[in-house]
What does this fold into?
Amino acid sequence: MVQSDEPPGSESSDAEEAPDYAPTPFDGPYFVPMVLLAGSLWFAYDGFLNPERLDPAASLSNHLAFNQWGAGILAVAGIALGIRAWLQQRRADRDPSGS
It folds into this structure.
């Protein structure tokens, strides 16, 4: 029997690998940027192209401003996060060791 200095129940460092799990689409680096860009498209449609905005009787000025600003903010955030994910992906592809 081999004696070791490790406490009972602990395993060696070779077995300390991360558990494997099935990846989901939500784990992808481009998921959040795509959701933000889709939201930006919706806000842009609702703020700029919606036929109701042409109705002078409708009081939509606050809603239009919200949708127009929201389209711009979500587009900038989606593009920024997309570029960040793309750069991280390139860095990971270039250096597979992760250091």
About this structure: Residues 61-94 form the longest helix (34 residues). DSSP finds two helices and no strands in the chain. The chain has a mean pLDDT of 80.
